Amino acid sequence: MNKNLGFLGFGTLFGFVLSRTGASDYDLIVGMFIGYDYTLVGVIGTAIITGAIGMRILNKFKHPVKNGEPLKVKAKELSRWSILGAGIFGLGWGITGACPGTVLAQLGEGKIYGFFSFIGMIFGTYLYARLKEKYPLL
Length: 138
Fold this sequence. Notes:
Blueprint: H1 3-21, H2 26-34, H3 39-60, E1 64-66, E2 69-70, H4 80-96, H5 100-109, H6 112-134
Antiparallel strand pairs: 1-2
């Protein structure tokens, strides 16, 4: 099977699951952030647990995942820039009701606010790349 078709299939399945669980629903996202609906906390927790188990299995069987190398997870250094970035990400997620995964599900569902979130993500990525060129310590 073509590797790209596999990625397309898993991406489509991921978007479907996001849509079905309500992870692309603005009201559910806002409900999570203001503390009256914890449905998405369960969805996110399940994803974290599933990912952790999958990584443990890959490590146990020494399955190569990239260029024949075993899976390695290195802690990223915490800096003021990563804290600032996390704050901007969280603020954007809370205001728009979208993160990179859910915005694509919103677009697939035809939600117009997903389009504006997507444009904002593209602009933010572009802006970061330009600033990174000028200020390499970011």
